[in-house]
Write a structure and sequence with these properties.
By secondary structure, the chain is an alpha+beta fold. Helices cover 37% and strands 18% of the residues. It has one domain: LCP protein (Aminopeptidase, 3-Layer(aba) Sandwich). Strand 3 and strand 4 form a beta hairpin. Helix 3 packs across helix 11 and helix 12 runs antiparallel to helix 13.
């Protein structure tokens, strides 16, 4: 592995987020709220799920059907976009993730694909006469004003890259999730460094933990140029904010209050469009109820920043990175991610891979050290 990649992974290893991923995956969030309290609360959440989460055919004929009897392993493609900012132009994914659930439906893994990863894209849109090109992977989602068309193209791109086919998918409006902060009041965010905003009034936010309202949190998750590793830093801040929304909701008792949980689930549902084929979201949520969000394993595709022709990309380099990446894709296809995680801790973002991380008990109580996320 190159020195720069090693440095990046070492820095990231001190900023773990053990269960941020389930905030981005709507059924993960639903699992938390449905299984988190009394039966009546769970029923309220299930009923709300059925009426609040939008569905659309995102994968078309490429979808692997789940069936009425949900069985693992399962793979889902998750795209994160900012639909408010991009409503008048083709949506470009800010995050691309593969969500894998093992055969027993008890363990979940989420692999982040860097949005600037340099790949071959089957359809590069009208500017390329819809021909193939080499570009950043998130360009694959921007070929049409129709989000579903862009999603299908990204799915084809990811399948070409990894060999993984998908049982379903979701488009998540990440920044829209932050609207939930208005319902909660404020959330705690822990900044790994001082941040001076490049937007609006150029507010200053000090390193360490503090309480932030919706407007401040939105400003923070949009910053990237202040971080030495650029967009990786912004991704960590997004992860931190999304996680803390659910931490705050739990701390305020949303998971045990029928009235409150309906509001929370409706807010989540408004920011999500899903495609699970003929399988209902409710059936899927119930089938995944044994997954513990705090046991989520998260990792990233082995890669590092790369400049080409004056443009900044991310690339999986030949040698150790390429070997590790191909092993990752094979592990997803063959449901052996537990082995890959054990063999490649430098590419994972999990608490148990670093002795200096906080304990699971602290995180379960909503505790968060400065600089984590």
């Amino acid at each position: 592995m190159s020195t720069s990649a090693s440095k990046h992974r070492k820095e990231a290893s001190t900023r773990r987020s053990p269960w941020w991923a389930h905030a981005m995956v709507v059924f993960g969030a639903m699992v938390m709220v449905i299984s988190g309290g009394a039966a009546v609360v769970g029923q309220v959440a299930i009923n709300t799920v059925n009426h609040s989460v939008g569905s659309e055919d995102l994968l078309g004929e490429d979808r692997l059907e789940i069936g009425s009897n949900v069985e693992g392993p399962l793979n889902f493609l998750i795209l994160g976009v900012d639909q408010r900012v991009q409503s008048d132009k083709p949506g470009m994914a800010n995050a691309i993730m593969i969500f894998h659930i093992d055969e027993d439906l008890e363990n979940a893994y989420l692999t982040s694909i860097p949005r600037d990863l340099y790949v071959s894209i089957p359809d590069c849109g009208p500017a390329w006469n819809h021909n193939r090109c080499d570009n950043k992977i998130n360009h694959s989602s921007s070929i049409s004003l129709d989000l579903a068309t862009g999603f299908a193209n990204t799915s084809s791109t990811v399948t070409e890259l990894t060999g993984v086919r998908f049982h379903g998918g979701a488009i998540i409006n990440f920044e829209g999730f932050l609207d939930l902060i208005d319902e909660l009041g404020t959330i705690e965010l822990c900044l790994e460094q001082d941040i001076t905003s490049i937007h609006g009034d150029r507010n200053f936010y000090p390193e360490g933990c503090g309480r932030y309202n919706q407007e401040q949190a939105l400003d923070l998750v949009r910053q990237r140029y202040q971080y030495a590793d650029g967009d990786y830093g912004r991704q960590r801040m997004q992860q931190e904010a999304l996680k803390q929304i659910l931490v705050e909701a739990r701390n305020q008792g949303y998971h045990t209050n029928p009235g409150k949980i309906g509001t929370l689930v409706e807010g989540i549902g408004e920011q999500v469009t899903v495609d699970f084929g003929d399988t209902s979201l409710t059936d899927l949520v119930v089938a995944l109820r044994h997954i513990d969000p705090e046991s989520f394993q998260t990792m990233t595709v082995p890669s590092e920043p790369w400049d080409y022709a004056g443009t900044s990309y991310v690339r999986t380099m030949e040698g150790e990175q390429e070997i590790a990446a191909q092993a990752l894709y094979e592990a997803i296809r063959n449901d052996r991610l537990d082995e890959w995680v054990a063999q490649h801790p430098e590419w994972t973002n999990n608490d148990d891979s670093d002795d200096e991380d906080e304990s699971d008990d602290e995180l379960a109580d909503g505790g968060q050290g400065a600089g984590e996320g």
